[in-house]
Amino acid sequence: MTDLATIRTRxxxxxQSHLLNFYPTLTAGExxxxxxxxxxxxxxxxxxxIDGYVRRKPAFVLPRDVAPAPYYPHDAGTGSKxxxxxxxxxxGEAIIRAGQVAAFVVAGGxxxxxxxEGPKGCYPAGAVTGKPLFQIFAENIxxxxxxxxxxxxxxxxxxxxxxxxxxxxxxxxxxxxxxxDVVQFFPQGVMPSLDIGTGKVLMASKSEVATNPDGHGGxxxxxxxxxxxxxxxxxxxxxxxxxxxxxxxxxxIDPVFIGLHASAGDSSGEMSSKMVPKVSPEEKVGVxxxxxxxxxxxxxxxxxMELQRERQPDGTIKFIAGSIAIHVMGVEFIHRxxxxxxxxxxxxxxxxxxPCVDPSTGAAITPGANNGVKLEKFVFDALELCKASIVLxxxxxxxxxxxxxxxxxxxxxxxxxxxTLRAARWLESCGVAIPKTAGGEPDCVxxxxxxxxxxxxxxxxxKLPKAIERGAKVAL
Length: 476
Ligand code: UTP
What we know:
Layout (H helix, E strand, L loop, with lengths): L3 H10 L14 H13 L5 H10 L11 E2 L16 H13 L3 E6 L26 H16 L5 E5 L4 H10 L10 E5 L2 E3 L1 E2 L7 E3 L2 E2 L1 E3 L5 H7 L2 H7 L4 E6 L10 H9 L7 E7 L9 E5 L2 E5 L6 H4 L12 E10 H8 L8 E6 L3 E2 L6 E2 L6 E6 L13 E3 L2 H4 L12 H18 L15 E3 L8 H4 L13 E3 L1
């Protein structure tokens, strides 16, 4: 029921009647849209969420048997988990050729740390060309088509806050050369944003509740609710190659990773992950652990510092496997979770500055400090629901150059440097001379389109210069 009287009663029952304070002053259209928005929110869940996440901060209990998660080493011939890379790659390539893999990017976040107006996927990320992130991913998919002769469908999760802007960006760029029906958009759900002191739901304006996307973990429900999952199942897609919108060096579809996920003896083929070794105990990334017989990611803030500082006898960090948010997810696994009535990933609390209006006067508030709590679900919490989940080590320079912050670590500048470093490495392996600074860094800016190559091996097929000039900017 979406009539005003019902909404008024439901709001009174959860002590959130202020959300209708301005109702009498709104236009008829605004009134309708506010009532419609309120009816779409999980109002009855709000009191328990305020109690569990605003009044109290959720307590974290460290599993007693927590240990580092085992992983497949980047160098397949070393470590305790030896494996056959060529075999995994062949298995992955067969799966790709059979049309059983879709690319899946979660692009519903708000990108508030970067402070870029517009969907983050539109951000000019290419080190030389300034190509938008979405174009870089599109070129990956074009490259897959060139190499394997199949169009891997590309699913893009947006949020109601950026869905239209994302779609029109693709329209205005003619889908970056992809056939129109290769790209599928669907929006994730939202949660009401809560006042950090009182738990009252914030209002974005007099006629709109302040909401936030419900986290990348919201993708499991959204894939199902949007019909995307049913479409995948009917077209024979078995695996989703999951990545985040902020990483221009991700291999959008990696045959080795897909093959290992689908065929390793200790993988249930439900959900697998890539990791990079942490550079220091203090590096703020989630860590792959093993507890209660399950792989899981523990957040940096939850894993006690004394454990993070523990070392192996050879001096390496014991809890070394840093999460870079690259996964392969089985379509049947997602279907099992999403259709289970009892399924629900836990919420995580994030404290944020949320622009809003004063609920009694309607005056706009631009907060100088955190004034709100966002509730979000994290996709890696699904790892614990797998029967057997594997972790593959990868090289940071090869596939992790995220753009999260405006400056400093994980910024456009650090991403440009990493893109250059990787390209220099690949070019050198093909015999191209790279100019270096006194410190040994490439003295140039380089960018390799993933349509040209997604690995040093693939670059060998490309016509290359003999040398790069000092200070040059070269895109290949
Ligand atoms: P982040 O954790 O970096 O969050 O998202 P964010 O919202 O983009 O950025 P900040 O924290 O406001 O600066 C990691 C990935 O998960 C996606 C993002 O788009 C990004 O690809 N994401 C995040 C969603 O798709 N939905 C969400 O609700 C949150």
